[in-house]
Amino acid sequence: MSPTPESREEAIARLNRSASDLEARTTSAAHADAVGQAVAGQAYKVVAQLLGGVFLGIALGFVIDRFAGTAPWGVIGGVLLGFAGSLWMAWQTAQRLMAQAAQSGVEPRSIPFDDADDEER
Question: For residue 55, what pLDDT is reported?
Fold first, then answer.
């Protein structure tokens, strides 16, 4: 028993369906990869803000100590002010990302706490 031959139009329709299915799978995988890269970029930005603020505070505190002769108080104050400023910048970045997520219709979820690593076996 041989398969029934399909007409040219049926073969073209079948190939078009297969091509659109393949394109949909490829597009969704590329989109997920792009979203993952964007999220990683934002995370690196927050880390850079936290470290940069502290290092900038140390540098400014050192300069103040050098010219005013107030060692080590300028560095201590610079570290504290740099840390506070970097936390403020990180907070603003987080708020902006949450607002963007709300506009796009994506509900932000928190990651559940997993204490399975702490259990003794």
Answer: 95
